Structure formats: structure tokens, C-alpha cells
């Protein structure tokens, strides 16, 4: 039954390849791709339940026992993220059906969408460092294509920057892998963790740890986020939502994996992550407040939440991990919703500056109220999904006495609220500038995914109790790396 | 031997960085290609260079060469090949669209 674990990655890859061959049949492509993402989500949900009952799942490819072969490890953290990624991407697909033009759809939009999802899922599930690199590259190559597909001038310009930045980050990733292999002679993550614990995390290993911190900070947008707002506001809405919801989260996942499993012995690194998180949140807030292009504002909101989630890693207690995982899955759903809403506004009005749009709530009440809901959820107002994550994060910070982190994390919520309220007050309230005759019709097919995401968002807040046992699993495995190591390595392996 | 190769890696990185900082798109792309070759050599060196025997492993073999770095490099080469090809096409597309690199100096300015 452990074979199920590979399906969330291999299913999108295989189906993506098949879709390449049925290029002219757009309707069929749509149907198959959305069924694939839903099936992956169902498999992930089943695996999550199974892990809750029987412990961490492991799949050794070709029966090569660890540490010799490549393997997939499904612990609650990885599988929970796979589940949310699949659900969110199915909903984004629905939006893509309604908005992606025929031109992009026949030029392999859906195969690359699925390849991207495969790369994301593979990165979450793999238990081998080099395999993580490969899955990252699968994801990135697909994202390069999706970012530039359509070939508008801004897309191409941002595409070049994005590709070059990521090529450089991948270079550093390989550098870290080379050093780590030279120092420890293994690439299995659990095995690396054992060996690091054995030889002690001296200056050399800490340095290698910092190389990985650099790499994943670039991918996650922790401090090194200069590339992010540009490349997240260039592509079509559905793609931007996919990027905002998934891509940085993979970097965050890798950071969590690295610094809760492998390089856990040096408190200095956690201090560094704390400082980086604070600077990221401050910088993100400044950006979100300073810009007046709504797509830029939303992109800076992604950066703020990256800083917030990594505060949990800097605090590193079970409670803060609980908060971080609640917030992480909330953020995937809410950022998808926010990007889709903003993209819809730009599509409906043809403008993207805050002060050029006014009174939209009168023309499109649904979009207005959903934006209001998303804003409250991201700011962390109680019945919605952002609240519970923030509470646990705060509790964790108080437990360890990290008051600076606490203060900045909660002040950043005000920054988020202010930046989004500015959009709401300027663009949704006020005198309407579009007369009823000029108003573009609001397609139901666009409304449906928005409503689904909003329902999911409310559901995750109201049903936090249902999620609690799984989140508890996640926090426990993150706080105690021995669980992961024991599940991967049999006892005699050293 | 390892020292020599490490020095070579250093030289390649220097060349790659120099090219990356250039103003022409083609040079930048070549820079990324050279950088990736440097890192491939580094991975090979990290596994230990020649240790006197084939990488085939029997029970109790006294001497063997580590095969893993070669497998890693093979994968990494394929990936960097793909990315370089994509970058070339992308920059050609940018050139077609604007007649010059993205904010960079193109051949028409010469």
C-alpha cells in the first residue's frame, strides 16, 4: 500500500505526457487534468489519514533499502502540504478554464500545469537531497514555461530575471550538495541527520547549513525576495495564483525540513532565521504599503507571510510548529484566493492602480465581498482560517520569550490589513466609475472557483478542530526528528 | 590531483561570474553554462577522484571508485542542458520582440 505515496507525483507527470499527445482536444485536456488533480488530492487525503493511524509511510524505489536508494517519505507535514497543494491547484484549474485563452491552452498549458504540480509534490515527498534538487528543477522548468507562455513583453522581461535568479540558486543548491556529500558521504536526508549528530555540527557543517539557508531563502523569498514581486505580477492570473499559492511554499517546506531534521544543533542558525524573518516582514510591509499597483501589493503580501511562517521555525517549539503549519495551509488557500480576486479585478476593469479603480462593489458585489472575506482571513480575524495559526504562533513565541519576533509578527498583520484595506476602500468602495452599460459581464465560471476557495477558507477556520489531530502530528514530527529518522533507517544502519 | 581540479573549478567559477556580469544576453547565458560545468567538476572531485578500480561493487571489494557522483553529474548535466536551451530560446524571443536584450545592450547598438 505504500506504493500510493508515489502517485501524487507520478500521476501528474504521466497524465501531463499524455496530454501533450491530445493537443487539439481542449475540452478533453481540461477534464483529464482536473480529474488528475482531484485524484491526487484524494490519494493524499487517504495517506494523511493512514499516517495518522499507523505512522510515517516510506517507499523505497526498486527495493533499494535506505540509505542506498532513493526513497519517498510521507510524514504528516509533507502529505498535508501535498493535499492542500492538490486541492488548491484543482480550484485554480477551474479558474484557468474560464480565463486562459485558446492560444495558451493549445500550447500545452495544462501539461505544464501538471508538471509544475508534480515537481511541487515530489519536492514535498522525497527523502533524498539530490532528488529534492531534481524535483525543484522539474517544478522550476514548468514555472519558467508558464511564466513566459503567451510572450507579452513584461512576461519575457520578468521571465529572464526569474530564470537567471533560479539558475543561480540551483547552482548554490548543487554546491551545498557537493560539500555535504564530500563531508558526510551520503544524500539520504535521515542518514545525513544521523551523521551530522554523530560528528557534531562543527563550523564546516554549519557553513554548509548556511549555504542551504541561502538557497532556500532565495526560493522561499526569505529576505532575498527582490525577484518575487515582479515575476509574480507578470503572468496571467491563474498562473500567478498558482505561483503565489505553491512556489514559495516549497522553499519554506525545504527550510523547515533542513533545519528541523538535519542542522538542528546550532542555535545561531535559528537566530539568523529569526533576524531574516523579521527583516522580511518589515520589508514586505513597506513594499505592500508603498506600491499602488494592486498586483504588486498582493505579491508583497506573499513576502510578509513567508516571514510570518518562518518565525515559527526561528522559535522552534511544538506550539510554534503547530501555528506555522496551520498558517502555511491557510496561506496557500488565501493567497490563491487573493491572487485570483486581484486578477479578476484587473481583468474586469482593465486597470491595475489602486486609485484608478473605484466603486467596484456596486458593479460586482460578489468580488467585493469575497475580497473583504479574504482580507479578514489573512489579517487573522477569529472565525476564519488565519486566526488559529496566529494564536499558536503567539503562544509559541511567549513560551520561549521571543518578544521581538512576537511583536514584529503581529505588527506585520496590521501592515497586511492596512495594505489590503487600502485596496478595499479605494477600489471597492466610493463612487462607481463604470456605468451599467459598459460593465463587463461577470462569468459564473469565474465566480465558482472564487467561491470554492472562500468556502475552503471559512471551512478551515471553523473546522480547525477537525484538522487539529493532523496538525498535532505535523508539529510532533517536526519537533522530534528521531521519529522521521527511525521511520527511514532501520536500526543497524549507521 | 584533487587540488588541481579544485583550482580549475575556481577558475571556471571566476570566468562564469565575469560572464554573468556582462551586458550581453549571450554572454550571460554562456556564463551560467560555465558555472554549471564548474559545479559538476566540484561534485566529481568531492566524491574523490581516481581510486584505482572500476566503480563496480562486489561483496568485500577492496578498491572501487564511488559511482554516485557520476550519476549525480549526469542528472545535473541534463538539467543544465535543458535550462540553457530554454534560456537561449527565451532570449531569442526577447530579441525578436524588442530588437535588443531586456534592458541590455543588443547587437543593433553596436
Tags for this model:
heterodimer; A: 494 residues; mainly alpha; two-stranded antiparallel sheet; 2 strands; globular; B: 110 residues; Helix Hairpins; 3 helices; elongated
Q: Could you give the topology of this structure?
A:
The complex is a heterodimer of chains A (494) and B (110).
Chain A: H1 7-21, H2 26-54, E1 57-60, E2 71-74, H3 76-99, H4 102-106, H5 109-125, H6 129-148, H7 153-184, H8 189-199, H9 203-220, H10 228-233, H11 237-262, H12 267-290, H13 294-315, H14 318-349, H15 360-363, H16 365-379, H17 385-400, H18 403-428, H19 444-462, H20 464-479, H21 481-488
Antiparallel strand pairs in A: 1-2
Helix pairs in contact in A: 1-2, 1-5, 2-3, 2-5, 3-5, 3-11, 3-14, 3-19, 5-6, 5-11, 6-7, 6-11, 7-9, 8-21, 9-11, 11-13, 11-14, 12-13, 12-18, 13-14, 13-18, 14-16, 14-17, 14-19, 14-20, 16-18, 16-19, 17-18, 17-19
Chain B: H1 2-20, H2 25-46, H3 68-98
Helix pairs in contact in B: 1-2, 2-3
Helix content of chain B: 55-70%
Largest interface, chains and sizes: A-B, 29 and 30 residues
| Strand segment tally of chain B | 0
**What fraction of the residues of chain A are assigned to beta strands by DSSP?**
under 5%
Question: Would you write up a description of this structure?
Answer:
The complex is a heterodimer of chains A (494) and B (110). With 494 residues, chain A is mainly alpha-helical. Chain A has a domain at 266-462. Chain A contains 21 helices and 2 strands. Chain A has helices spanning 7-21, 26-54, 76-99, 102-106, 109-125, 129-148, 153-184, 189-199, 203-220, 228-233, 237-262, 267-290, 294-315, 318-349, 360-363, 365-379, 385-400, 403-428, 444-462, 464-479, 481-488; strands at 57-60, 71-74. In chain A, helix 2 (26-54) packs antiparallel against helix 3. The mean pLDDT of chain A is 92. By secondary structure, chain B is mostly helical. Chain B has one domain (2-50, 65-109): Orthogonal Bundle (Helix Hairpins), CATH 1.10.287. Helices cover 65% and strands 0% of the residues of chain B. The termini of chain B are far apart. At the A-B interface, helix 6 and helix 7 of A face helix 2 and helix 3 of B.
Amino acid at each position: 500500500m505504500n506504493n500510493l505515496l508515489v502517485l501524487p507525483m507520478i500521476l501528474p507527470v504521466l497524465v501531463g505526457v499524455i496530454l501533450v499527445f491530445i493537443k487539439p482536444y481542449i475540452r478533453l485536456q481540461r477534464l483529464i487534468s482536473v480529474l488528475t488533480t482531484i485524484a491526487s488530492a484524494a490519494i493524499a487525503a487517504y495517506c494523511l489519514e493512514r499516517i495518522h493511524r499507523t505512522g510515517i509511510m516510506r517507499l523505497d524505489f526498486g527495493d533499494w533499502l535506505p540509505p542506498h536508494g532513493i526513497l519517498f517519505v510521507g510524514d504528516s507535514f509533507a502529505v498535508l502540504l501535498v493535499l492542500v497543494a492538490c486541492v488548491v491547484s484543482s480550484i485554480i484549474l477551474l479558474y484557468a478554464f474560464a480565463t486562459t485563452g485558446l492560444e495558451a491552452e493549445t500550447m500545452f498549458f495544462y501539461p505544464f500545469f501538471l508538471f509544475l504540480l508534480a515537481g511541487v509534490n515530489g519536492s514535498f515527498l522525497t527523502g533524498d537531497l539530490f532528488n529534492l534538487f531534481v524535483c525543484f528543477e522539474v517544478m522550476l522548468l514548468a514555472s519558467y514555461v508558464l511564466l513566459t507562455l503567451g510572450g507579452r513583453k513584461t512576461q519575457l522581461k520578468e521571465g529572464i530575471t526569474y530564470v537567471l535568479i533560479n539558475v543561480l540558486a540551483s547552482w548554490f543548491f548543487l554546491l551545498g550538495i557537493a560539500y555535504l556529500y564530500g563531508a558526510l558521504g551520503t544524500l539520504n536526508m535521515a542518514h545525513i541527520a544521523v551523521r551530522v549528530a554523530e560528528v557534531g555540527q562543527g563550523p564546516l557543517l554549519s557553513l554548509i547549513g548556511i549555504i542551504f539557508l541561502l538557497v532556500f531563502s532565495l526560493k522561499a523569498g526569505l529576505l532575498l525576495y527582490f525577484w518575487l514581486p515582479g515575476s509574480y505580477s507578470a503572468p496571467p492570473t491563474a498562473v500567478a495564483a498558482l505561483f503565489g499559492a505553491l512556489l514559495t511554499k516549497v522553499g519554506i517546506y525545504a527550510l523547515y525540513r533542513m533545519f528541523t531534521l538535519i542542522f538542528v544543533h546550532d542555535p545561531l542558525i535559528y537566530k539568523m532565521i529569526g533576524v531574516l524573518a523579521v527583516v522580511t516582514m518589515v520589508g514586505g510591509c513597506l513594499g505592500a504599503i508603498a506600491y499602488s499597483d494592486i498586483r504588486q501589493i498582493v505579491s508583497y503580501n506573499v513576502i510578509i507571510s513567508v516571514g510570518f511562517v518562518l518565525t515559527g521555525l526561528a522559535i522552534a517549539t511544538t506550539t510554534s510548529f503547530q501555528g506555522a503549519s496551520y498558517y502555511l495551509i491557510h496561506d496557500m488557500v488565501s493567497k490563491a484566493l487573493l491572487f485570483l480576486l486581484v486578477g479578476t479585478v484587473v481583468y474586469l476593469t482593465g486597470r491595475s492602480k489602486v486609485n484608478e479603480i473605484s466603486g467596484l462593489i456596486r458593479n460586482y458585489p460578489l468580488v467585493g465581498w469575497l475580497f473583504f472575506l479574504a482580507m479578514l482571513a489573512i489579517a487573522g480575524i477569529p472565525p476564519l482560517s488565519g486566526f488559529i495559526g496566529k494564536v499558536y504562533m503567539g503562544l509559541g513565541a511567549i513560551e520561549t520569550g521571543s518578544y521581538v519576533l512576537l511583536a514584529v509578527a503581529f505588527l506585520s498583520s496590521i501592515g497586511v490589513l492596512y495594505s489590503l484595506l487600502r485596496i478595499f476602500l479605494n477600489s471597492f468602495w466610493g463612487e462607481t466609475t463604470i456605468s451599467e452599460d459598459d460593465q463587463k459581464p461577470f462569468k459564473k465560471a469565474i465566480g465558482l472557483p472564487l467561491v470554492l476557495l472562500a468556502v475552503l477558507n471559512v471551512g478551515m477556520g471553523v473546522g480547525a478542530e477537525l484538522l487539529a489531530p493532523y496538525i498535532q502530528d505535523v508539529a510532533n514530527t517536526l519537533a522530534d526528528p528521531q521519529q522521521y529518522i527511525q521511520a527511514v533507517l532501520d536500526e543497524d544502519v549507521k | 590531483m584533487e587540488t588541481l581540479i579544485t583550482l580549475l573549478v575556481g577558475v571556471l567559477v571566476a570566468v562564469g561570474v565575469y560572464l554573468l556580469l556582462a551586458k550581453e544576453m549571450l554572454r550571460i547565458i554562456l556564463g551560467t553554462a560555465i558555472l554549471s560545468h564548474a559545479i559538476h567538476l566540484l561534485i566529481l572531485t568531492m566524491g574523490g577522484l581516481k581510486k584505482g578500480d572500476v566503480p563496480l561493487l562486489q561483496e568485500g571489494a577492496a578498491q572501487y571508485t564511488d559511482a554516485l557522483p557520476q550519476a549525480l553529474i549526469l542528472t545535473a548535466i541534463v538539467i543544465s542542458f535543458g535550462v540553457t536551451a530554454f534560456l537561449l530560446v527565451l532570449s531569442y524571443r526577447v530579441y525578436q520582440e524588442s530588437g535588443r536584450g531586456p534592458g541590455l545592450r543588443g547587437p543593433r547598438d553596436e
